[in-house]
Amino acid sequence: MNRKTFLQKSTAAAGILLLPKLLADDVVMTVTGPIRPADMKFTLEHEHVLADFIGAKGYSRDRYNADEVFARALPFLKDVKQRGCVTFIDCSPAYLGRDVLLFKRLAEATGLNFITNTGYYGAVGEKFLPPQVYTETSEQIAARWIAEFRNGIEGTGIKPGFIKTSVDNAPLTEAQRKVVDSAALTHLATGLTIAIHTGNGEAAKEELAILKARGVSPQARIWVHAQNETDKAYHVEAAQNKSWVAFDGVNPETVNVNIAYLQNMKAHKLLDNVLVSQDSGWYNVGEPNGGNYKDYNCIFTQFIPALKANGFTASEIDKIFIANPAKAFAIRVRKF
Ligand SMILES: [Zn+2]
């Protein structure tokens, strides 16, 4: 019996005949369970519902009232869904505003596909890193993240749909290198895509070198906040290496600069590797009623009209907001 036949027989015996194919190459994980990439449709791939900037040391769910956050976020999410958003990806990592039970309530109340993450955030001078990063190996840290994917986050059964980590400008610190390395190991074990908040273009290159050393393809990496690097040559090089390049800071003040970045990528025939989002939201813990919550509408009200006015076709716009996120967030091991 070859391996394939064995797998077919053993899974059929377990009564889950269709599951292996689904898990092999066709799944995106939301807080309410797996969906097919084709069901993601219009996706905002980097947004936030909740953020607490106190740092890992002081982080606690007791610092906010989840019902208040729910009530504040709900109308913004309903609004953007009504405008055409189908999938909402929340990029707040652990110790910075990841509250998966809150996210599940919001997913159920809005009908949005809502995706959360596993991983640790190493940027801002490592303020948001928990102490185990300094005492554990990459393998031990990865084991924690892999367990979240296999068993669910914090006993909820809710699973992450990607890995979120972060670094400042190059050179990366030892702890930042370790979380990227842990992300590489987690990717190999789970197929979860690795989104890395990145200070600058040199840091983005360092990340790929760490992934390569573990045998992970650049196709598994999303360069989060590529717009922070103003030298477009870095964007082009990363995309030519097949990394995802995310221009994810679209807001009314940055429409034109992001259009210019996308025009450059289009001129280099690299639109297959770009992602676009807003990094908008969120209930800011510690401010009265969450402070100034920014809506998620700019891509619909200003950015897509600006893309059209600058010659982007309907199929190019669909690629950026539908086809690319479906490929980027499909759960699949991508080896170098
Ligand atoms: Zn963000």
TrEMBL record:
The keyword Oxidoreductase does not apply. Its cofactor is a divalent metal cation. It holds the Pfam family PTE. Residues 1-24 form the signal peptide. Binds 2 divalent metal cations per subunit. Gene3D superfamilies: Metal-dependent hydrolases. InterPro entries: Metal_Hydrolase, Phosphotriesterase. The modification N6-carboxylysine is found at residue 164. Belongs to the metallo-dependent hydrolases superfamily. Phosphotriesterase family. This is Phosphotriesterase-related protein. It comes from Chryseolinea serpens.
